Structure formats: structure tokens, C-alpha cells
Amino acid sequence: MEAFVKETSKAIVIPNDDIDTDILIPKQFLKNILRTGFGISAFYPWRYNEDGTKKMDFPLNQKEHAGATILITGNNFGCGSSREHAVWALTDYGFRAVIAGGFSDIFFMNSTKNGLLPIILPEADRAILRECQADEDVTIDLEAQTVSFRDHVFHFEINPTWKEKFLKGQDDISLTEQYEAQIEAYEAKRPVFK
Amino acid sequence: MTTMFDKLWQDHVIAGELGDPQLLFIDLQLIHEVTSPQAFEGLRMNHRQVRRPDLTFGTMDHDVPTENIFNIQDTIAKAQIETLEKNCQEFGITLAKIGDSRQGIVHVVGPERGLTQPGKTIVCGDSHTSTHGAFGALAFGIGTSEVEHVLATQTIWQTKPKTLGVKVTGQLPHNVFAKDIIMGLIGKYGVAFGQGYAMEFYGPTIEAMSMEGRMTICNMCIEGGSKTGMVAPDATTYDYVAGREYAPKDMAKAIDYWKKYKTDDEADFDKIIEFDVSELAPMITWGTNPGMATSVRGSLPAIADADDQKAYDYIGLHPGMRAEDIPLDYIFIGSCTNGRYEDLKTAAAFMKGKHIAPNITAWVVPGSRAVRNRCMEEGIAQTFIDAGCEWREPGCSACLAMNPDKVPAGKHCASTSNRNFEGRQGAGARTHLASPAMVAAAAVAGHFVDISQQAVNA
Ligand code: SF4
Description:
Chain A has helices spanning 21-24, 44-47, 85-93, 105-113, 123-129, 160-168, 172-177, 180-189; strands spanning 6-14, 70-73, 97-100, 117-120, 137-141, 146-149, 152-155. By secondary structure, chain A is α/β, with parallel strands linked by helices. Chain A has a seven-stranded mixed beta sheet with strand order 4-3-2-1-5-6-7. In chain A, 34% of the residues are buried. Chain B has 16 helices and 19 strands. Chain B has helices at 4-10, 37-45, 75-91, 106-112, 144-153, 178-189, 204-207, 211-220, 235-241, 251-258, 306-315, 335-338, 341-349, 369-377, 380-386, 436-445, and strands at 13-15, 22-25, 28-31, 56-59, 94-96, 121-124, 138-141, 155-158, 162-169, 197-202, 228-230, 271-276, 283-285, 293-295, 328-333, 361-364, 390-391, 412-415, 430-433. In chain B, strands 5-4-3-6-7 form a five-stranded parallel beta sheet, with helices on both faces.
């Protein structure tokens, strides 16, 4: 997993509350063999017309928003089914962080497993962030636990375990790899019957 | 003094304190085409290797076609199957491909190959991994991120559950089987009685049971809410394992070690349930979860709550009906619950010299290539064919209908599989779970019958 220390980027604002995993990635896209390739289907129902053409008023389709890695959204983000694909859709699109009023538990856990930084900020802070224009940057400093925009600096809370994981770019596997010596010791003494 | 589960757990802990997640070593990971592709992709993206390809084994089962197994029409299924082949090749994992004599449903293949052994921790990206617990192994299903974790590290973080002893006593009545025991248990205690527990099945009835029967029970224990179920290994277990492809050559030495996997005293369990089978009747399900089970002799139960109402609406039946009045259209014999040699042999005994009823379409799908071959050598396949059944290639088939074997909407199917959820066997399909003998007898009669009153000796 790529480490997350500081990110300065354009941001996309999709202010709705309760964006569920069916919106993030509808179930017809689940029968895939890759973790990549979901990006073009992210927000599918809101992003495309029924005939598959792009809705040009949706930010993910707009040129001026291209390259944005920060998503600013509402409360209860990522509710619905447990599909890990919802996170894969956002990371594959290019998002590195989501700033929301809150996240569903499963989505939150899944994003920590996949390097998508979930940041919780209160409505008052997000109201200001929502003013972000296509040519403006937002900066996330994980070490300092701050989100900066224009001359505002917002502080956010994060569990120290997750913070450490993101700062070092550790996924669950790299955490476990710290136990390599113990795993090897175990392997050396485990009974094997031939 | 401690339980078999405690011993299995303790013997695999690498790190972590009791009560917190603990790091367990995994002795065997089984993989298949549907839940593994993203795990391998994750490895690739992070430049990781499979730590122990020698402790990993792959097969193809969930979406293989069973009419012509070499002709995969569904492009996604085809991509998943080809991807598994490519991944196993790249990472050096043994794979039982389509056409391979070892291919079949992952939970049939593991035991059949001798990979499943007492004392092992076994995982697979499939909830019915509990099946392998029948050998005195600690076996449970995991998600795709965890599949990747095990591939990379051969370990997994888990929090230890409590233990539930399920003591099974009494002589099984004529034509009542292991499937009826587990359905009877779930029918009586519901679909959540095992939640938070590791189950161990023991008692005289279990001791007298074949490995196939024990596997059927452990397979479906997850339908009772438990993540894992197990039976202590004994002579029946050792006899089953001995001589198989991956079995220890020095069995005596292995058995000497495996012997310790037993519960010292039943008082060591956190909770105990006792289940007397001497009055048990053949079971069927009437509704849309495995807890909605009833004796074939009774009438369908009254509506107790909104879930019952919803289930009756979906299944198109009503309370008070007799089981034999359920208008069956299809029968499915197969799956990791009941697709083994013994299951097919038992079912065939009920079809020998008979023909299925005109209202029935019958699919018989062996759990593995080895099961299929043996049934063909011994004339069991011919019995099914002569009776008018379709004799298929090995795979999961109509158990979850990810391949073309789908029961049409509104049609009733008597099935030897493990789940009767809405849409499980196809959109709108109505599933009734039962034992292989019950399903075979239903195919002949055209409806469910009480086989405990029939003379047929399975
Ligand atoms: S037979 Fe059914 S339950 Fe068993 S592994 Fe296949 S799909 Fe899962």
C-alpha cells in the first residue's frame, strides 16, 4: 500500500448523505476478476445515462475536475452491502481520501485495508469545504491531522493504529510481515507428516 | 482439561493475547475461481509472493458448466477460470483443472485427496469450509482480503470463539441420515444457535457415523450460525485418510500425534446441547432459510411471524399443507453437502429399476471427477440414467446456480444442497432441502414421501 503522509489536490464535492455501495458500484459490475478497472463504473447510476453516455453535469465527468484525489461528501458514506468493490471503485478512480460526516463501519474497515483515508469532519467544516472550486486545492496533512483549504485549517481525529498504518503505507499484510520471525519459528517446529 | 477446539487453536497461535485477535498459522488453503482473483491481483500490485504454494491447492467448481464442462459459454465464468489457471501457474500452486481427475467441489476434493487431515487449520474463500472439520481440523471460510493475507503470510488474525458441544445420541431410524440430523438441529434451534461458537459434534451416534455423514453435518453447521464445526478423529477418520494421494505415508506416526485432538471432558465446553435422534423423521425445508425445516410426516407450520409470512409468499405454499402436496418440478442431487460417493450410492438405491415421475426434471451432479468415475464404474451412474436423470459433470451446479444450472422462477426443487434462500437456485426458484435418499424417492414418486416407511435399504 502507498503511504499517505500529505496530499495536496483538487477536490470533488458530492454533498449527498447516505451514498450507498449500490451507487458507488452497482452489482452488475461485481463479477470481475480484478481489483482494478472499477473506476470507470464508480458512481455509475449518477454518472451515466441509461444508454451509457456520460452525464456531463456530474463532477467525475468534468475535465476541470480531472486528477482530483479528494472526495468531499455527506453523512453515512458507504452504507449498504459489505462489498469491498465500493472502495476499489474509488481508489481505482484515483481517490486517496474521502472527507465525510461519517462512514458505515464496513466501508470504513474496507477503506483502511485498501489505502483510502477516511476523514470525519463536522458539518460546519464541510460546509466551507463544499465551496471548493475546480481550480482550488485542498491539503490533507495526516501527521498533523489537519485539512487545509484557503486560510482555514480543520483538525480531524483518527485512531492511532489507523494513522500509523496509513503513514507507513502498511496494509494488514505488511503489519503481519512484522511477525516474520515468529512465523518462521513456527514453521520450523510445526509437525509435518510425510 | 480442555476441548479439542482449544487444543487446535492453541497449537496454531503465533502471536497475540487471548481475547484479542490472535495470529494463527494456516496449514492448508484451498482456492477456487470465484473468490481468489482479486486476492492474487492484490499480491501482484504489491509485488508479493505466495508464501507457501506447497500449502495451497486450487480447484474449479463454482461456475463450471456441468453439461459440457469444456464448453464455457458465460464469458465471466470463462475469465474467472482462465485467471485461476494463470494465477496458479504464475505462483506455483497445484491446480486441479477442468478435465483433471482431481477436479471437483473444493470441499469434496480436499478430503478425497487426503489434503484434509486431523489437526490442521484449513481455510478457503467459501463459507462451507467447515466441512473439513469432520476430520478433527479447524476449518472455516474467509473473505477475499483474508484469502490474500493467507496467500502472502500463511497466517490469519482471528478472535477465539466460545465452544459448543453438540452431543448426538440414539440409533438413527431406518432411512434417516446425517442430513436429517443437522436439519433437525437447525429446525429445532434455529439459524443462529451457533453464533459466536465453534461447534463440536460428539456422542455415540457421531462415533458410529461414516466420514461422509460427519462431513454433511459439519458442512451445514454454518447454517446454524457457527463459523466452524468439528468431530474428533478416530479409527473411521484414520481409515478414510490412509492411502490417499496427500495422506502421510507413515500413518502410525501421524495417528500417534492426531490422537490428542479430542475433548478431555464434556464439562470443558462453554455450552452443551443434547440431541436424541431415535425418534427423528426424514426432514424437509418448507421455507426460505434452513431453519424453516419440518418432518416429512407433519403438516407445514403455522405462520408465527413476518418472516414466515414472507417465506410462504415466496415459496407459494400455505400452512397446514402436507409435505407430499408440495408440487415438485425439479430434483437436484449434488453439492458439497451431499455430492459424495456414499450420497450418490444411497440415492441410486431409491431409483434402482424405477423411473422418475413425468413431472420431474432430475439433475445428478457428482461432487468431483473421482466420485463421477467411481459411480460410472460401479453402475451407479447407469441407475440414474436408466431412471431418467441427467448425469452431469462435477461442480457446484444448482447449489448456487452461478453456472447455467438454474431452476426456473416459481418452480419447486427438492435439493440435497445446503441453502434454500430466495433466489439461491435461480431467480424465483423454490428450494426444498432434504437428504439424498429423500430427494431420490421424491423424484420417483413425483412428490415427497416418508421413506422411513419404505422398505428400500440404502
Ligand atoms: S456446492 Fe454449494 S455450498 Fe458447496 S462450495 Fe459449491 S456453491 Fe458453495
